[in-house]
Amino acid sequence: MANALNVKPTRMELSNLKDSLDVAERGHKLLKDKQDELMRQFIDLIKENNQLRIEVEEELSDALQNFVLASSTMNDAFVEELVAIPSQEASLQIREKNVMSVRVPDMQFHYSEEKEAEEEKLSYGYLNTSSELDESLDVLNEVLPKLLKLSEIEKTCQLMADEIESTRRRVNALEYRMIPDHQETIKYIEMKLEEDERASITRMMKVKDMGDDN
């Protein structure tokens, strides 16, 4: 429910309120447009996130099955020794990008640029290992960039959801409180000024009548 603001019913206040109302209405439109665009991008990201999560979970499941099969035919200590030393260097660079005034992560994942033969990339030989272990490690190697992309999207979704909620509160504050209160106050002041003007005209007419009688 709109409430009139506690201001003096003067023409100066009326002018100031009209200017403030104009700013509030323009700000409301800009924020509403921002909210709509944030929601559109958020929905697109959610769809991308769901699809990527399905792909990652399927690939990780396959890798885990192969790793379990490999472990069942190999000594646990031997398996741990095989995967203890990384065979390839990788770097992760995390930057930020601006999406509708929201600072979201932009991850850049890079493997080492050294040209190595396929067998040299492994920290073990093929002789004492199973094909399931090779397949499992290959899948994990391929799925890592997708995992990082998934974490980037999920963090972006979280930040955008916070911004959407913040923008929604500001839109509602303008739409349901500030703008109606200003409109109600402007209406009140205009009515009050009209009443004062009619009262002033009435007094002037009475003074004129009194002068004519004399």
UniProtKB/TrEMBL annotation:
TM regions (residue ranges): none
Signal sequence bounds: none
InterPro entries with a match to the protein in the record: V_ATPase_D
GO biological process: proton motive force-driven plasma membrane ATP synthesis
Entry GO MF terms: ATP binding; proton-transporting ATP synthase activity, rotational mechanism; proton-transporting ATPase activity, rotational mechanism
Keyword Phosphoprotein in annotation: no
Entry keyword Ribosomal protein: no
Pfam family, one: ATP-synt_D
Keywords per UniProt: ATP synthesis, Hydrogen ion transport, Ion transport, Transport
Function: Produces ATP from ADP in the presence of a proton gradient across the membrane.
UniProt xrefs under PANTHER family: V-TYPE ATP SYNTHASE SUBUNIT D
Family: Belongs to the V-ATPase D subunit family.
Protein name in UniProt: V-type ATP synthase subunit D
Organism lineage: Bacteria, Bacillati, Bacillota, Bacilli, Lactobacillales
Gene: atpD
